[in-house]
Amino acid sequence: MMSGFTPSLPYRGRFAPSPTGLLHAGSLTTAVGSYLEARTRGGEWLLRMEDLDPPREVAGAASAILQTLEALGFEWDGVVEYQSRRHELYCAALDQLTRDGLAYACGCTRKEIAAHARRGVDGYVYPGTCRHGCVAGRAGRAWRLRVEAGETVFIDRLQGECRQDLERDIGDFVLLRADGFWAYQLAVVVDDAAQGVTDIVRGADLLVSTPRQIAVQRALGVDTPSYCHLPLMVNAAGEKLSKQTLAPAIAPQAAADELRRALQRLGHVPPNECGSLAELWAWARGHWSLDKVPAGPVTV
Ligand code: GLU
């Protein structure tokens, strides 16, 4: 099945960082691209803190991210939403999916899955052990979405046509984790739908997740937004910039330089006369075009 755009709605974009570390060149570049795309299309731009994974979070990171965005001159619409305060919405979505027979409890441990499953495109492909009920004597630990057979196809505005066979490459995937935390794949869909997001512009590392999110959208009966995955930012060794690969934090005191570099990575080279933040943003708004943005990885 094909998922396309929902062009009739007014544009509403968002930036959804996880407070697992400070902003780095990769996350800042995503923020700049999603912001400019929203603003140049006359749209709104929301900010959502994806703080659903306390074990991976860093104390103070959420407020540091907001301060850095402010120092760089971003202006978001409405209040910042925090996923950690939206538990009821995710519960209601999981209840709906369970009532509709689309989600089920799974009692398998990681070890058991590793022993029986083959590897897919993003970890092990769940072999479906609990699809028709947990093994006798086992209680459900996690909740999974029942995926359908066949390819999921969508058109990404930058990456073009993308396809994935969820059953073959991913398997029934987790919505509520065994440790009690909500899975990103469920929360992101519930929030984007609840917040009326029409256009998702984010990093290409999430391309592999998009078919899962489309499956959740279809299961919940909500619209599929338009997708645009910006190039992956990699270091000299070709690794995705992240806390794990020791990507340096963005320096709010060097805001104009940081913004200039982010624009350059997105294929937009501001003239030297644009020295201040305000001049750079004004230039960027006047010159922004997705056509100039490279699709492939950018070395930072
Ligand atoms: N919170 C996710 C991240 O920081 C991004 C989610 C999204 O944009 O869909 O990687």
From TrEMBL:
Q: Which residues bind Zn(2+)?
A: 106, 108, 126, 130
Q: Which InterPro entries match?
A: Glu-Q_tRNA(Asp)_Synthase, Glu/Gln-tRNA-synth, Glu/Gln-tRNA-synth_Ib_cat-dom, GluQ/Sye, Rossmann-like_a/b/a_fold
Q: Which cofactor does it need?
A: Zn(2+)
Q: Which residues bind ATP?
A: 243
Provide this UniProt record's keywords sorted from A to Z: Aminoacyl-tRNA synthetase, ATP-binding, Ligase, Metal-binding, Nucleotide-binding, Protein biosynthesis, Zinc
Q: Which GO terms describe its cellular component?
A: cytosol
**From the Swiss-Prot or TrEMBL record, what is one GO molecular function term?**
glutamate-tRNA ligase activity
At the top of the EC hierarchy, this enzyme's class is ligase
| Any one GO BP annotation for this protein | glutamyl-tRNA aminoacylation
Q: Where is this motif: 'HIGH' region?
A: 17-27
Supply the EC number(s). 6.1.1.-
Asked if the keyword Aminoacyl-tRNA synthetase belongs to this entry, the reply reads yes
| Amino acids binding L-glutamate | 14-18, 50, 184, 202
Pfam families assigned to the protein according to its UniProt record, in alphabetical order: tRNA-synt_1c
- According to the UniProt entry, where does the motif 'KMSKS' region sit in this chain? 240-244
Instruction: Outline the extent of the Glutamyl/glutaminyl-tRNA synthetase class Ib catalytic domain.
Output: 12-249
Q: How is the cofactor bound?
A: Binds 1 zinc ion per subunit.
Where on the tree of life does the source sit, at the highest rank? Bacteria
- The reply on keyword Transcription regulation is no
Tell me the PANTHER family matching this sequence. Answer: GLUTAMATE--TRNA LIGASE, GLUTAMYL-Q TRNA(ASP) SYNTHETASE
The record's comment on protein family reads: Belongs to the class-I aminoacyl-tRNA synthetase family. GluQ subfamily.
What is its biological role? Catalyzes the tRNA-independent activation of glutamate in presence of ATP and the subsequent transfer of glutamate onto a tRNA(Asp). Glutamate is transferred on the 2-amino-5-(4,5-dihydroxy-2-cyclopenten-1-yl) moiety of the queuosine in the wobble position of the QUC anticodon.
What is the official name of this protein in its record?
A: Glutamyl-Q tRNA(Asp) synthetase
